[in-house]
Amino acid sequence: MASSCVTSSGSPQIQNPGSHEVLLPHHQQVMSMDQRKRKRMQSNRESARRSRLRKQMHLEDLMNCICLLRKEKSQVLTSINLFKQHYLEMEAENSVLRAQLIELTKTLQSLRHICITSTTPRPPPPPPGGGWCCMFWT
């Protein structure tokens, strides 16, 4: 059974047996709920403000990352263009060198053919009677 006692303000308080809670009159409970509600609303506002700040910081971090990535992309594209230009120059030089190789190979083959046909001693025709061979043995 609930017991009652009087507070210093003169309003009665009711206490449940087995409980250390003091039950306040209805108007005090309403005021207490209003205070909790205001406190909760203030806490929610602060939480929302912190959330907006975190979101803003995250957005700023992302924007900084975008700037850095754009700079890096620009540098990479510049490097690619330089390498592409260098590649095209090397490709042109290789084409010239291949053409020179083909020409020089043809010239070398022609010179070898001339050397083989002009420097190879042809044996003189044998003399009549075959006496010519004996000359080397005597």
Which structural class should the secondary elements be placed in? mainly alpha
Number of helices: 1
Binned, the helix content reads 55-70%
Q: What kind of sheet is the major sheet?
A: 3 strands, antiparallel
Number of strands: 3
SSE ordering? EEEH
Provide the β-strand percentage band.
Answer: 5-15%
Domain BZIP: 34-97
Keywords: DNA-binding, Nucleus, Transcription, Transcription regulation
Organism: Sesamum angustifolium
GO molecular function: DNA-binding transcription factor activity; protein heterodimerization activity; transcription cis-regulatory region binding
Quick synopsis:
The chain has 138 residues and is mainly alpha-helical. It has one helix and three strands, in the order E-E-E-H.
Q: How would you describe the overall organization of this protein?
A:
The chain has 138 residues and is mainly α. It has one domain (3-119). It contains one helix and three strands. It has one helix at 26-119; strands spanning 3-6, 12-15, 22-23. A three-stranded antiparallel β-sheet has the order 1-2-3, with no helix packed on it. The longest helix is centred in the middle third of the chain and has 94 residues, at 26-119. The model has no long low-confidence stretch (mean pLDDT 83).
What is the strand and helix layout of this fold?
Blueprint: E1 3-6, E2 12-15, E3 22-23, H1 26-119
Antiparallel strand pairs: 1-2, 2-3
